[in-house]
Amino acid sequence: MKKNVRKAIIAGNWKMNKTRPEAKALLDELKPLVADVKGVEIVACVPFTNLETALAAAEGTNIKIGAENCHFEKSGAFTGEISADMLAEMGVEYVVLGHSERRQYFNETDETVNKRTKAALAAGLKPIVCVGELLWERECNITEEVIARQIKLDFFAISKEDVKKCVIAYEPVWAIGTGKTATADQAEEVCAFIRAQLAKLYDNDTAESITIQYGGSMNAKNAEDLVSKTNVDGGLIGGASLKAPDFTTIIKAAENG
Ligand code: PEP
Asked: What is the CATH number of domain 9-256?
């Protein structure tokens, strides 16, 4: 299967930004800019407090709404947490899981990413599972070992049917929010490696069908180069997703990529 039959997905990760009126304003600005986009799935992953506003603003448009995390239990004594069922019931479609900021600041591990991924799938959500190496790990030449381990653990005991509902975001930690982007060749190399790991764990057809995004300081200037690569099927975008014109440029680059 070739790149042109995989779904390109450009997802914004708003992180801890935007009040509800600001969220509505950003989506209202984005809607007409991307209304004619074809062949690219557009997703805005927003803070929990913005979900209802974002779902209403995106209704009837080609913009899907995602959350930035979910808990792995269905319900119970987990103060401050949100379950996958709660998100699905609202009409949320996607959820970012295992983002490096969650791993770094909130002690998330591959084990909890695996549990969250299973919970999200059980609720009917599409997980965007983030993997990526630290700068130190890249310098020590163990990027592939790190990524192989994350893929194996994050997707442990997830069936072939279910993994096909997932998106994987390759996000080198050293490139997130730093302004340092992986070169298109570096992104391609690791995205191709992820696909090869999926082929080993599942099979070739499954691996070829999964959307693998690049994330890490992707912006209006470098997007075209990144998404033109065979194994880079779109992007997970932080900072640049907060500016409608820049996010649109990235989306249009993926349309042509
Ligand atoms: C992200 O938050 O997933 C991300 C890639 O951020 P940025 O684009 O700002 O580096």
From this structure: 3.20.20.70
